[in-house]
Specification:
2 copies of one chain form a homodimer. By secondary structure, chain A is α+β, with helices and mostly antiparallel strands. Helices cover 44% and strands 23% of the residues of chain A. In chain A, strand 4 and strand 5 form a beta hairpin. In chain A, helix 8 packs across helix 9. The longest helix of chain A has 26 residues. The mean pLDDT of chain A is 94. The interface between A and B is large, with 44 and 44 residues. Chain A binds a DNA duplex through helix 9.
Chain lengths: 233, 233
DNA sequence: CTGGCTAAGTGACTACAATCACATAATAAC
DNA sequence: GTTATTATGTGATTGTAGTCACTTAGCCAG
């Protein structure tokens, strides 16, 4: 499907580029839609595209030697993934799966590399992005160190709360929340355990489900306290 | 202490730089030695140096909210750490601790940034290095997904085996191996559990201790099979 | 509206690693 | 050489999350 420069400029990382560059990139890019569960990027393959997420939620997943699924990170709209090859021409290290129906824009790596030559700014941006990824992986790893299981779940949930609500501790909504299973593999837990934690959070009226696509966070302050371990579940 | 250009060229990442550049960098750099347990980089601080490791072994560590220690990665001689700020000017995300007495070279970030302007090659190299770090963090995360504890320990041990021995499955030696505790925090295990796994590995004559500073890997093939889950301990 | 399917809730049971509490060994410090 | 300190080894006990085996709910397609 055709990509317009306007679509590309919806992404914070591309927005600063001049219109001419955006037009050129747009011509070489394509919109790709995936159904829930669709494989967006394949591990071990030299994917020659960077995948920008327009709508929906993605999850980076890997598999252990014995076939167990491991959740690595979530990708939110406006962000991108699969950019590692931009730096080292290596293969994509992990799978990226669509958690919901998604709309993505695939931009060829080679075109992006061309653009970085003309616009070092983009290179800088990519570097910052990669640094952010390292910081996020590090944070996620620390999370796994928590011996208290409910705290782990609450921390993960906390990371899914929109920024503004995190600031003001207002009630908020998480759109298309991951399933219990998807959370479980991120946290090295079983699906049942995550389910039991949610059960407690719901009876305590800290969160409330509203269909599959909405999770209301009613008591943001309580969630924060639980995430920080200041309160036990 | 004074740094010579020769010392700097011992690092694969700096070796390709022209002698004049190396001399300039050498003048601005300093050798710093740390005792075992010394704090090489501090979390949360904007460290204005990239730390190149000449001798010994470092460990990146973080702490969970409840104070539990979490091991993130090991740094081997020839490699460097603390480079994240080069990309985003952000604070150092984790502590870096000396596992043995170490000799490091601290190169000011600002000098390195200057060099990247003249030598895009270095920029490319730094990018590749950061990408490698992401790959390593990802691999380490997958490791934690392993439900079998001894496999986890064997995998980690396998990563410490020198490259050439990994290829040829020859007997080899791990210098200054991490303590059981240091391995434990990398793998989300208790010290005792690691100790028990080592006990089995030793009675099976797969590894052999030789003082504090040497760990002989006698049966590399068996270690590999255990790491891959092809054999149970 | 009715299957078919995926997600989520729940009890019972169990395995297994954490914890505790030491003993012992190996280094480092004096 | 002797003491202090840190690393390691080991048994006993316990808590807790995983697993199994279902049930129930929610969603979508026809």
């Amino acid at each position: 499907m055709q990509v317009t420069p306007e679509l590309l400029s919806a992404f914070p990382s591309l927005k600063p580029l001049p219109p001419a560059t955006l037009s050129r990139l747009a011509q070489e890019s394509s919109v790709r839609k995936f159904a829930r569960r669709g494989v967006v990027l394949t591990a071990g393959v030299r994917e020659e595209f960077v995948c920008f997420l327009f709508e929906g939620r993605l999850q980076g997943v890997d598999f252990t030697i014995d076939g167990r699924e491991v959740g690595l990170y979530f990708v939110e709209p406006g962000d991108f993934c699969g950019e590692l090859g931009m730096f080292d021409h290596g293969p994509q290290p992990e799978f990226v799966i669509a958690l919901t129906a998604v709309v993505t824009v695939f931009v060829p790596m080679e075109s992006l590399r061309q653009v970085t030559l003309e616009h070092p700014m983009l290179l800088k941006l990519l570097g910052e992005r990669l640094a952010a990824r390292v910081r996020q992986l590090t944070r996620q790893r620390s999370l796994l160190g928590l011996p208290n299981i409910s705290q782990r779940v609450c921390c993960q949930l906390w990371l899914l709360v929109p920024d503004d609500a995190r600031q003001n501790l207002q009630a908020s909504v998480i759109n298309n929340p991951p399933t219990h299973m998807e959370i479980a593999i991120m946290l090295n837990l079983s699906r049942e355990t995550v389910s039991r934690v949610f059960q407690i959070l719901q009876t305590r009226q800290i969160v409330r489900r509203d269909g599959t696509s909405l999770l209301h966070v009613s008591d943001t302050a309580a969630l924060k306290r639980l995430a920080e371990g200041k309160e036990e579940l």
